[in-house]
């Protein structure tokens, strides 16, 4: 008999027991790695939300107290960027983890998701999740037929997200109540911070008193302004109204005599119905945008501040009416500690930092830097991560956190290692931006923007965060290096759009060009 065998057996037994005990302890400590299928997901799209207008990102105003509270238990990515600055292409990048020119969904009323591209809800439904999308009604940018409806068991469309966030909050809470026993993916969107900025009466002067009486602060006031401005334009033969509606429709509108006499709400309803009957619904959106911004005295700094205050008030209203009740409902149902919550945005908003307003045409920090907040059940104390990230990282991060396979199409990177403190190297050396006519590359220190028809722009972000001093010609070596990196990256991207989509006939040539230039009409 081998005298060492008892000792070998004892050693093996101890090793086995130690391994079992270690595995059990690891399963207790890192339980999320072993029961990912129990976790729900809530993904919140907040349209037009700048990162620097949240308290948890350093903003002085208390615009999002409920999200700030959530962020205290979450991971905040402080240098998160969108690759594109308008809604259609940006949200498509989030749900596919593809850059804009890869998924090819660039132009409203024209492009659709390519065949073969999988969306986040499609993947989650494959894993047995019940999936629901609460989105805006009659919107070309988030139309389910474009591809935003793929993978969803339920699609609920309304205008609540823009005009009645309290009603949206009640709908979401009711859905949670009805589906509390399911493993779910709840994805919803709000247009509340989008222009025109219409916070309700109780929020309207939360951050500033009204500075200019002519600025519309309700839909009815904007409707009256559209009527009165159009009436003057027709009487005075001002070109702007004809340019928007077209001469053919203008002649018909004049014949209808809508703009004779004073304003009445039914007259604007008749105008809207007229455009719809002639398959030109988007003309009303063009009129709303033109009249709204024309009503604002952009030469007056106090008026500019008031516009920002309206934007902030709209953000606060959404936070109070939707995020607060939603988190409370998750806790009431015992789901808060079983749910991964992601707060993100498609793009920011420019408030005259570069002589413009709104979003779409540019790739500056105020429109590309957006919030990304990820709350997981197993992290109880929040922290900030300064590494570069992009909204294309959201899909691979969620799948990785839950132990699911990341599809080969994904061009974003998983941030799960940074979230779980298992990896410490930043996933991106650079983040990128793409538009029809321009592209950008950003490192931790430099930001380069290349335009098709204009000189390049180079900014040293650590010294010039507002991008006011163009160093493109002065720092030629840096500009050349970043240009090579950007061109190399763009040439390496796989294109998934399998056919050239065409605009429908109802979209006139001028509107097509505006969509190509800005992403909007």
Structure, explained:
- The protein is of the alpha/beta class and 521 residues long.
- The chain folds into three domains: 291 residues, Alkaline Phosphatase, subunit A (3-Layer(aba) Sandwich), CATH 3.40.720; 79 residues; 81 residues, Arylsulfatase, C-terminal domain, CATH 3.30.1120.10.
- It contains 19 helices and 14 strands.
- An eight-stranded mixed β-sheet has the order 4-3-5-1-6-9-2-10, sandwiched between helices.
- A hairpin with a 3-residue loop joins strand 11 and strand 12.
- Helix 7 runs parallel beside helix 14 and helix 9 packs across helix 13.
- The longest helix has 32 residues.
- The radius of gyration is 26 Å and the shape is globular.
- The termini are far apart.
- The N terminus is likely disordered.
Summarize the entry for a quick read:
This protein has 521 residues and is of the alpha/beta class. It has helices at 5-29, 65-71, 87-96, 100-103, 120-126, 160-163, 165-178, 201-204, 219-236, 239-245, 247-256, 265-277, 282-294, 301-332, 365-368, 394-401, 416-419, 476-492, 509-518; strands at 40-46, 75-81, 130-136, 154-158, 184-190, 339-344, 350-351, 357-358, 372-375, 383-390, 431-434, 438-442, 446-451, 457-460.
């Amino acid at each position: 008999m081998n005298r060492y065998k008892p000792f070998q057996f004892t050693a093996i037994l101890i090793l086995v027991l130690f391994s079992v005990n270690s595995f059990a302890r690891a399963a207790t400590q890192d339980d999320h790695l072993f029961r990912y299928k129990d976790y729900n997901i809530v993904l919140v799209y907040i349209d037009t939300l700048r990162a620097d207008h949240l308290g948890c990102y350093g903003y002085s105003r208390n615009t999002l107290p409920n999200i700030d509270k959530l962020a205290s238990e979450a991971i905040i990515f402080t240098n998160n960027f969108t690759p594109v600055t308008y809604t259609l292409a940006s949200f498509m990048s989030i749900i596919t983890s593809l850059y804009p020119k890869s998924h090819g969904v660039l132009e409203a009323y024209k492009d659709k998701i390519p065949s073969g591209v999988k969306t986040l809800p499609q993947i989650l439904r494959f894993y047995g999740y019940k999936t629901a999308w609460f989105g805006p009604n009659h919107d070309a940018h988030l139309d389910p037929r474009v591809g935003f409806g793929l993978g969803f068991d339920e699609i609920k469309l309304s205008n609540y997200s823009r005009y009645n966030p309290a009603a949206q909050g009640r709908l979401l809470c009711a859905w949670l109540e009805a589906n509390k026993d399911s493993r779910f993916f709840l994805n919803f969107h709000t247009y509340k911070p989008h222009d025109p900025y219409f916070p309700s009466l109780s929020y309207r002067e939360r951050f500033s008193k009204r500075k200019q009486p002519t600025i519309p602060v309700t839909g009815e006031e904007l409707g009256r302004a559209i009527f009165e401005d159009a009436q003057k334009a027709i009487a005075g033969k001002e070109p702007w109204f004809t340019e928007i509606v077209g001469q053919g429709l203008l002649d018909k509108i004049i014949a209808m005599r809508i703009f004779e006499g004073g304003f009445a709400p039914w007259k604007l309803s008749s105008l809207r119905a007229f455009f719809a009957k002639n398959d030109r619904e988007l003309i009303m959106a063009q009129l709303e945008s033109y009249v709204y911004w024309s009503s604002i005295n952009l030469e007056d700094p106090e008026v500019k501040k008031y516009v920002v205050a309206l934007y902030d008030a709209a953000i606060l209203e959404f936070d109070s009416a939707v995020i607060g009740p939603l988190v409370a409902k998750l806790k009431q149902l015992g789901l808060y500690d079983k749910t991964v919550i992601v707060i993100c945005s498609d793009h920011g908003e420019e408030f005259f930092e570069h002589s413009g307003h709104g979003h779409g045409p540019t790739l500056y920090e105020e429109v590309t830097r957006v919030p990304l907040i990820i709350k997981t059940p197993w992290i109880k104390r929040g922290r900030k991560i300064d590494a570069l990230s992009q909204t294309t990282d959201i899909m691979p991060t969620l799948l990785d956190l839950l132990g699911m396979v990341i599809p080969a199409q994904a061009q974003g990177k998983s941030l799960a290692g940074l979230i779980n403190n298992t990896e410490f190297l930043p996933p991106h050396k650079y983040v990128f931006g793409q538009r029809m006519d321009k592209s950008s590359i950003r490192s931790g220190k430099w930001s380069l923007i290349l335009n098709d028809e204009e000189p390049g722009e180079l900014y040293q972000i650590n010294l010039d965060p507002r991008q006011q001093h163009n160093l493109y010609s002065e720092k030629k070596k840096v500009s050349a290096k970043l240009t090579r990196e950007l061109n190399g990256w763009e040439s390496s991207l796989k294109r998934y759009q399998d056919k050239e989509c065409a605009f429908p006939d109802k979209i006139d040539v001028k509107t097509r060009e505006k969509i190509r230039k800005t992403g909007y009409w």
